[in-house]
Structure formats: C-alpha cells, structure tokens
Amino acid sequence: MNKRVYLLTIVSFVVGLVELILGGILHLVASDLNVTLGQVGMLISIFSFVFAISGPILLSATAKMERKKLTLITLVVFLFANVLAVMSSGYWVLLIARIISAMSAALLISLCVTIASNLVSEPYRARAIGIVFMGVSASLVLGVPVGLLLGNAFGWRAPFVLIVLLTSLSILFVALFMAKIKPKPSVPLIQQLKSLKNMKVILIQLTSFLFLAGHLTLYAYLTPFLQSIGIDGNWISIMYLLFGIAAIIGGGIGGLLSDRYGPQKTIIGIIALFAVSLFSIPFTTAFMPLFIIVMMVWSLLSWAITPAMQSYLIHSAPQTSDIQQSLNNSALHFGIAFGSMSGGIVIERSTVEMNAFVGSIFAFLALIVVGLSMKKSLQPKPKETDLPLKKAN
C-alpha cells in the first residue's frame, strides 16, 4: 500500500473531527454565547447540510486543478475557518466559521478519497478508499468525546485550538511528502445525479439518510440527555468512551455479519434492533447497568450497518458504484444535518427524553424503506450472458 494513502487518512481524520466536535459541549457554548441548546445544535446541522451539498459541487468545479496544490489551498481555508471559530465572540461569527469549515472539509474528504484511489493500482483501490474512510469514521466516533474532554478542561474553544494545530501539521506533511498529482477526468455532477434514476438505489440512499437522522436526533444531544438523568462530570466522559469503543467494535461486527448472512438480512436485523434499542433508552435510565448495556448496543449498531449498506449499494448498482459511494456520503451527512436539526426542535419544544422516541421513529421509517428496496420487482434483472446454460440431454 502506498504510504501516502495513510497521510490522506490522517488528513481525513483531522478534517472529520470538526463535524460533531460540538456535540459534547453544547451546554458550554450555549452558556458562553448566551443562546439555547437547540441553536448550538443547529451549528451541527448547518455544518452537515453544507458538507453534503458542497462535496460533489466543489469537486466538479475544481476538477482541472493540480491535486496537491488544491489540497494545500483547501487546508489553508479550513485552517482559517477554525481560527475564526477560536476567535469568535458571538453566535453568528461561529456560524460563518462552521459554514466555511464545512465547505472546505467536504472538498478535502472528497480529495482524499479520489487521490487515494489514484495512488494505487486497481486491485488495491477499494482497500485504499476503505482506509481513508476509516479516518472519517474514527473522527465521527471520537469527535464528541475529544470535544467533551478538552471543552470541560479548558473551555469550548480548546477543541478548535486542537484542530488548528493538527491542521497546521497536516499542511506541513502534505507540502513535504505529497507529490504533485495531475487531475483526472471526473464524473460531471449531472451524470452523478442521473444515476439516481434507479428506484432501488434511491431507496437505499434514503435508508442511509433516515438511519443517520434517527441516530443523531439523540446522539447530537447526548450530553444534555445524560445530565437530565443525573450523570455529570467525569462520568459523561466515561459514557462517551464506552460509546466510542462500542461503535468501533460495531464496524467490525457489521462486516462479519454481512459476509456470513448477506447484506440484506444484516441490514434488516441491525435497523430493527437499532430502532428498538433507541426507543427503549429512556425506560432503562432507572437501572444504570441496564442503561449502559442498551446505550452500548445502540452505539454498536449505529456503525455495524455501514459495511452491509456499502455492500448492498455496490451489488445494487455495480456500474455506478463509485458514484453511489460519493452520493451515499452526501446522504449520510444530510441525515446528520436533519437528525441534529430535528433533535434541536424537539429539545426546544419538549424534553430531551423525547429525542430518543423521535429518533426511533426515523429508524423504523428506515426499516420500511429498506424493506421496499428489497422487493422482487426492484431486483436487478440478470443479463442473458449471466443466465446458467441448460445442460445437454
């Protein structure tokens, strides 16, 4: 494996940290900027929404630029955005910083994936892309606990200071170790959208959207939820640590289940259990050991679905699998945006305990949608060359 792929993985990890880093310190930001928890939660929603839209558009718009130069320029913009976040004295300045950060992060993740796939030969391409996405997945899992630990110790700006330092190192390493890479023809945005004519593919992408929306409806507000049931201080950090461990384990378990039972059965089972665990969380808070178990099951399942969904998507649209992976990334971030926005609305108008119930509704909708995608009428028809030959009598 080309060593520069691991450099790109580090970049994707650093960039990905920013998306959910506010999740654990909502109360600190809200108190300092004199706004509500829901308004701070909207900063996560806006980031994810801008991220989902910006990735495909900016990648197409910069298709003719030399890739190393483009990566460095975008990293500098990302650095500026996070310096602005550190210096922000009001909500609207932080909002602008989040928008700039999201746009540059979306382009950087897309660049990391495309550059990694071009650095290796065809047999290693999928593995290289998978390694880069490990950086993204790890950042989404660790973003909240990192923000929580630093925020509680040094104030809510501390996590952004860490991002500034890590981004500065990333710029240095890319400048020193990344060779110039000529741009390759990219798939036009219109052609990417045309690939969604397939109803089965649309339903799969919608499933990813609804599943992540359900997850983030509660996860984006997990800190105030934990505080509402009497958990505070270092115990919140411990809860996030357990959550992160379970999520990382979930990714491995999901891959094993998908290989053994097939992606369709795995997806149905995971979403069903996920919805039940999410719905039951408020009923387990009176008995802490049970609550911790259910919370870890919820976390494990939230990432266990990823390998099966990717496999199902590739099997359903093999001719446009690369495009579908990119669009699925956008669908996931739209889900994060919608879920955190929905959670903010719920917490403003009701209690944080209701976030779990609303999230479970999104999860049950995801179960219905993915079930529809598996109808026989939507299954890809085999070509004549794929049909088995009749044996001679």
UniProtKB/TrEMBL annotation:
CDD domains: MFS_NepI_like. One of its GO terms (cellular component) is plasma membrane. It holds the Pfam family MFS_1. One of its GO terms (molecular function) is transmembrane transporter activity. Keywords: Cell membrane, Membrane, Transmembrane, Transmembrane helix, Transport. The chain crosses the membrane at residues 7-30, 36-58, 70-93, 99-120, 132-154, 160-181, 201-222, 234-257, 266-284, 290-309, 330-348, 354-374. SUPFAM superfamilies: MFS general substrate transporter (SSF103473). InterPro entries: MFS (IPR011701), MFS_dom (IPR020846), MFS_Efflux_Transporters (IPR050189), MFS_trans_sf (IPR036259), Tet-R_TetA/multi-R_MdtG-like (IPR001958). Residues 4-383 form the Major facilitator superfamily (MFS) profile domain. It is a multi-pass membrane protein. It is found in: Cell membrane. Its main location: membrane. This is Major facilitator superfamily transporter.
